[in-house]
Write a structure and sequence with these properties.
The complex is a heterodimer of chains A (about 400) and B (about 300). Chain A is α+β, with helices and mostly antiparallel strands and about 400 residues long. Chain A is built from 12 helices and 8 strands. In chain A, helix 1 packs antiparallel against helix 2, helix 2 packs parallel to helix 8 and helix 7 packs antiparallel against helix 8. The longest helix of chain A is centred in the N-terminal third of the chain and has 25 residues. Chain A is globular, with a radius of gyration of 26 Å. In chain B, strands 1, 2, 3, 4 and 8 form a 5-stranded antiparallel sheet that branches. In chain B, a hairpin with a 2-residue loop joins strand 2 and strand 3. Chain B is built from 3 helices and 18 strands. With about 300 residues, chain B is mainly beta. Chain B starts with a helix and ends with a strand. The chains are: A alpha+beta (about 400), B mainly beta (about 300). Chains A and B meet through helix 7, helix 8, strand 8, helix 10 and helix 11 of A and helix 1, strand 4, strand 8 and helix 3 of B.
């Protein structure tokens, strides 16, 4: 297995996608009330436990959808390059009520950011003429035709052919056009809003999410609680101590939820043990000195559409498998659209190198004895059939 | 069954986490840090004397990762012609099994022969470095260099500047060597400089006879049950019978100044062959630099 950042989600093919299981969740709530009332009228403890058990099932249904169905596959893993423009780290809470309020997303411990794509500036946008027609098969070809007439919505000096691949990653995809979902795209911070004539609110940003285990943790917690609530129902049949055990188990499970949910919001996307993970990135910051360097990063992840980003639905890299810094440039240059040249070529080279690194045979090669060194091959390495190479002759020198 | 097993494992892991959390084992917060946890770093390096010394390891200044070509022939740096075009080559490794470096800047420079002397840039190039153990690791960077018109010995420096790095301390390597036929005694001279800070440097010297030992065969290493071979942290001292005299043996170098040191090395009677002497200059804050002097006795 490649050494990728951990993830807990799967994506569904467009044909297999279904919306949030609200009906199932509401049904669970109704059944919980009914069961609670029916069983509770005979014995209160088992009634409450049964109601909570059914609520757990509803919650598990939602978590399972969140983890396995919500994201729509768009075509495997992709890379993008750019600078981190906007950051959305997870927001932990110690309040169990807040933690379990799905609408504020605290239980989702993903570390998210928007990447300003290479060769664009934050103010640039897709034209409204494209966005109004974005689900049409003719929209993207028409964008290519219109591109030379679009500046300043798009860069003056960048032909469409140069950026078509990365632009394609952030626009509505034909593979899911029939699903009837929204596509609002990613917007910029207020400071970069220009409302240029003919422009839309879809900027050249790729949303990226590094997965935290929050929703998976919640699913596990609900499964454990379900088991405890079911046990609480059945132990009621034990003579004498049964009713007491039912209450004890129910209260314990409820307390576990109150204690566990806030803890889960703190279980964010942290550094995996081992490997070469970690470090900081200098991101885009409108308040910083124009001479300050901003890091340009390469991000590799699964290309999906997130159906739960209501109002700002977009394609994204989710999960991010890994990212690396590849260059840097003064923000003053980038803000004028002057990016270091040739970085698409660099991106292709990284793609090729990571293709080799991610291949199954690489781990075997790296496990060979001559690659067991830690400090320097000539100090703690060893002599294999093929010795460590010396530099080949340079060939003709051109001065 | 496997799903149930996974659920139990996940539940136990969650229980362990929640208990730990309640006991105060919270993940450290990183306010004001843009620290995406999926960020990975490469670890490009070459034989770096300063870094190896910081690990307490003996070093040679005859850097095995810096080469000089005259045309397509490798030549010794002590034997260069003045005002002549050579090619300096650097062999660059990557400790990371997961992260390559594309377009890494490699800076070449030269110094007067000695320790802590003034650096003069030769040029900069870029190189693509693959991950550990893969084709493209090591990578090789080349730089044409026309030697100065003043005949003399020069130290070569190679500095790596990747976009990111696990270890920034092993990116600078030096090759400072000189060879002399012993003529009772063999005499060398080198400079000790101070171009780093405005404080004076009180320099003393350490002399040893370390050379990188030959590599053992991999099957020998594995037969011994080890993943890699042990590195000795002790350098062989000057063997008995040899006499090394440094003049001066200690000196103070002011900022911007360079002072000449003479080394007289007398072999024992009857010695034939070559013997390396690593002279490392040390001040109050650590190693300033060094040279490897090789004595040849026909």
């Amino acid at each position: 297995m490649p050494n990728w950042y951990p993830s807990w989600t799967q994506c569904s093919l467009p044909a297999n996608f279904r919306g949030p299981p609200w009906a199932g969740v509401l049904t669970s709530a109704g059944v919980a009330l009914l069961l609670g009332f029916l069983i509770g009228s005979v014995a209160l403890g088992p009634g409450i436990a049964a109601a909570l058990a059914v609520l757990c099932i509803g919650g598990m249904q939602f978590c399972t959808w969140w983890l396995n169905v919500r994201l729509i596959c768009l075509g495997g893993d992709r890379s993008v390059i750019g600078v981190i423009y906007h950051l959305e780290p997870p927001v932990p809470t110690d309040n169990p009520i807040t933690a379990l309020n799905f609408t504020n997303g605290d239980i989702d411990t993903d570390y998210s950011f928007n990447l300003l794509l290479y060769e664009f500036v934050p103010q640039q946008v897709l034209p409204q003429s494209f966005v109004a027609n974005q689900w049409s098969a003719s929209a993207f070809p028409q964008l290519a035709v219109d591109w030379p007439s679009l500046p300043p919505l798009v860069p003056f000096n960048v032909p469409f052919s140069e950026v078509s691949d990365e632009v394609n990653l952030i626009v509505a995809q034909q593979s899911m056009a029939s699903l009837g979902l929204g596509f609002g795209g990613q917007n910029v911070d207020a400071v970069d809003q220009t409302n240029a004539p003919g422009g839309s609110s879809q900027h050249f940003l790729m949303h990226c999410e590094i997965e935290g285990p929050g929703m998976h943790d919640l699913l596990v917690l609900l499964a454990v609680l379900l088991g405890i609530f079911l046990a609480a129902i059945f132990v009621y049949a034990i003579p004498v101590v049964g009713p007491i055990l039912t209450w004890v188990l129910t209260i314990l499970a409820f307390l576990a939820l109150l204690v566990g949910a806030p803890a889960i919001t703190h279980d964010d996307a942290g550094l995996p043990s081992g490997g070469d993970w970690g470090g900081s990135v200098t991101s885009w910051d409108p308040t910083q000195n124009p001479d300050d360097l901003v890091d340009i990063v390469y991000v590799f992840g699964r290309w999906v559409y997130d159906s739960l980003h209501t109002g700002y639905e977009s394609n994204e890299l989710h999960p991010v498998h890994y990212m690396v810094k590849i260059s840097s440039s003064p923000q003053g240059y980038l803000s004028k659209g002057f990016w270091p040249p040739g970085l698409f070529e660099t991106q292709l080279k990284y793609d090729a190198q990571f293709g080799v690194i991610n291949s199954p045979t690489t781990i075997q090669i790296q496990a060979e004895p001559q690659n067991g060194w830690k400090i320097h091959p000539l100090l703690d390495g060893c002599l294999a059939t093929t010795p460590y190479p010396e530099p080949p002759p340079p060939g003709p020198v051109i001065v | 069954m496997s799903k149930l097993h996974k659920l139990i494992c996940d539940a136990l892991a969650l229980l362990r986490y929640v208990i730990g959390f309640q006991l105060g084992q919270k993940k450290p917060t990183s306010d004001n840090c843009v620290c995406p946890p999926a960020l990975k770093k490469p670890d490009p390096f070459l034989y770096s004397q300063q870094y190896l010394m910081s690990l307490g390891l003996p070093v040679t200044w005859d850097n095995p990762d810096i080469y000089i070509f005259d045309g397509n022939t490798i030549v010794d740096p002590h034997n260069l012609q003045a005002n002549t075009l050579y090619t300096v080559a650097a062999r660059i490794w990557n400790s990371s099994p997961d992260v390559p470096v594309i377009n890494m800047k490699v800076y070449f420079s030269y110094l007067s022969f000695g320790a802590g002397t003034q650096s003069h840039p030769i040029g900069v190039t870029t190189v693509d470095l693959a991950a550990k153990g893969l084709p493209g690791c090591p990578a090789f960077a080349y730089m044409p260099w026309t030697t100065p018109s003043a005949l003399g010995h020069y130290c070569l420096q190679v500095l790596l500047e990747p976009p990111d790095d696990i270890n920034w301390l092993n990116n600078l390597g030096q090759r400072n060597t000189d060879v002399t036929q012993a003529q009772s005694p063999a005499t060398f001279s080198f400079k000790v400089g101070n171009h780093l800070g405005d404080r004076p440097r009180n320099v003393t010297f350490k002399v040893d006879c370390y050379a990188i030992p030959p590599l053992p065969a991999c099957d020998v290493i594995f037969a011994a049950g080890a993943r890699s071979r042990d590195i000795s942290k002790t350098a062989p001292p000057v063997p008995s019978g040899w006499n090394v005299v440094l003049t001066p043996s200690a000196l103070q170098v002011l900022f911007g100044d360079e002072k000449e040191v003479t080394a007289e090395i007398t072999p024992p009677a009857g010695f034939h062959g070559t013997m390396p002497f690593n002279v490392t200059a040390i001040d109050d804050y650590g190693a300033v630099g060094g040279v490897t002097l090789t004595v040849e006795v026909a």
